[in-house]
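Holo prediction. Input below; ligand is flavin-adenine dinucleotide.
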Amino acid sequence: MAQDRVRRLLIVGGGTAGWMAAALLSRMFGQTLAITLVESEDIGTIGVGEATIPPIQTFNDALRIDEAEFLRATQGTIKLGIQFNDWGRLGDSYMHAFGGIGHHHALSPFVHYFLRARAAGRTDRLWDYSLNERAAQAGKFGKLPAIQGTPLAGLNYAYHFDAGLYARFLRDLAERGGVVRREGKVAGVRLRGSDGFVEAVEMEGGEAIEADCFIDCTGMRALLIGDALKVGFIDWGQWLPCDRAIAVQSENVAPPRPYTQSSAHSAGWQWRIPLQHRTGNGHVFSSAWMSEDEATQILLDGLEGPRVNDPRVIRFRTGRREKFWDRNVIAIGLSSGFLEPLESTSIHLIQQAVVKLATLFPDQGFAPAFAAEYNRQMIDEFEGIRDFIVLHYHANQRDDAPMWRHCAAMAVPDSLTRRIELFRQSGRIFREQNELFHEVGWMQVMIGQNIWPQRYDHMADALPEGELNEFLDNLKIIMGGAISRLPDHAAYLAQLGCKVVGAA
Ligand code: FAD
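Structure of the complex:
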């Protein structure tokens, strides 16, 4: 069947988004599609973005990336989850650990057995049944897809890495796959008179680069989707008050922890992300409740080691484009919207966008149905993550600072209210369609921030009390045994040829 294929694709922007798009699309369509990427070293990239979530493994696998080579090239470390400190109440600490918690019994999810035992006086933490959390706290990691001889899953993990080095790594791959890189600044965008499609980008020197299809990866500048096509931006500031980040790097003073830390302050929160050669730190805060000077001071006071660069302010707006795909332009990365890095989801959203674009890749006709479906799917992705992040802000009992009181009292999206109420009243949670975060992730944040269900599922009563305790004890023993056999995280990385503080 003759098809009017798109032959020329221009990616504008070479940050993490641009090079992820270039690497995957060249692998999938390199035979028939000429891909050019234009970027400007003078403008540079956003220069932050260090924590990821497990689906990035699928992306790397699709590119046939060797994990050890990737970890060495990006100064990467392993991430088993995110530890949240002071989020529910001052002094609280819990982890959103990847992977499962406990094990279901008969048809009833594990949480109901846990709640029943708790109601009977058992004092375990939910996370005593999380292999990931316990390995993270012990500073251990090894490849463990399953706990042998049991039905229990093993460790689920993601990475911390330097996103600039990751982009560089992907650039090498993409260029080997035929992508042509052009250095220079885009000064303008030329639209076709008949239908307003983008015809070409105009470079500072006057040259025009034409293409059939354009991917806008110009970061927060959004040169094509925003400036040229005037697609609007939906602001979510009413639910997510933070609009600034101060970022700074510090020396490692101890072996890298295999997890991200997020510590709430009075008007925002601070991340700590350990790489092999340094630690990334940042304070995300709301300018309505704190000045940049104060936020910088709090960040610097909270560093574990000496800082290695000057603090940098990044201003942002939380929300999404009204449309991600308009005419022959698809916005990917920061040009398409932004959700603060509380659950490390931006690089994941890039991955989702690139994969969805590949599955809905247009031909020259740019049938509106393709863009409509892509937009529908990406809106779901963004809104599901938005609700999850809003949950962290809303479910707090901190009365020490006005921002937290405001967030606890604010009206949240109906979709979130519904979910919190169902969990509070019944301990039940349901994952909606293909949303990113599973039941176990929602459950950890809700319980971690003190939303305790008022009852458990009566199916959990089917197990006699003695058997229930034996079931729970056995889970803990099996997990403890598996963790004791794992190497230290630092030793694991060293064995892959990575240079890590504290490795034997
Ligand atoms: P950029 O990195 O800004 O790249 C834009 C590109 O466009 C550059 O190559 C630039 O040179 C080019 N460009 C722009 N204008 C022009 C022009 N006129 N001509 C030519 N080229 C041009 N994500 C995570 O997943 N995990 C995290 O932990 C995380 N932390 C973050 C912390 C903060 C404070 C912020 C703000 C973001 C964080 N992110 C995180 C998001 C992550 O940094 C971005 O999603 C990711 O880096 C992608 O950025 P980008 O490629 O869209 O944009």
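The chain has a mean pLDDT of 95. That is the main takeaway for now.
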